[in-house]
Amino acid sequence: MAHKGGVEVLNRSLKDGVTVLLAGDFKQTLPVVPKGTRTDEVKSCLKRSTLWPKINILKLSKNMRVHLGEEKFAGGFADLLLEIGNGDYPSFNEMVTIPENLCTVVTTVQDLISKIYPDIAHIHDKPMEWLCEQHVQYSTYSLQKMTKWGLSMIYC
């Protein structure tokens, strides 16, 4: 998200009536404030600007990326993300449980690596594009464990 100061400067520069289109999801990110606190970030977001009341918000009602994809659970996952983002999905102690049909649950790092890279023993035969297509969300702690285990599989 843009820092409100940047948008306000653009507004002063374009006082001759130019329409500006800002696109994005305000739920996803706050502007970065170097050495700032969370309060500083919230204060610098566009919603706190004097321009906010003048902004006309248009919402897309259909996620076209979901409909173009071939995965059968993509629509359900997109709906789940919207519910979570809007605060409409049930949570327990601020923790959200994602249904198992929308994710793959593993219990060990080895299982995780096997799911992401099913043929890791032959990784040297794979093109770089294959590696780029594999992805996962992880915590920093898990990344350290996975990297160590994954490298031992590649270089043994």
UniProtKB/TrEMBL annotation:
Cofactor dependence: Mg(2+)
UniProt entry keywords in alphabetical sequence: ATP-binding, DNA damage, DNA recombination, DNA repair, Helicase, Hydrolase, Nucleotide-binding
Broad EC category: isomerase
GO molecular function (one): ATP binding
E.C. number: 5.6.2.3
Annotated ranges, domain DNA helicase Pif1-like DEAD-box helicase: 17-92
GO biological process: DNA recombination; DNA repair; telomere maintenance
Catalyzed reaction equations: ATP + H2O = ADP + phosphate + H(+)
InterPro entries xrefs: DNA_helicase_pif1-like_DEAD (IPR010285)
Sequence similarity: Belongs to the helicase family.
Protein name, as recorded: ATP-dependent DNA helicase
Organism, as annotated: Acyrthosiphon pisum (Pea aphid)
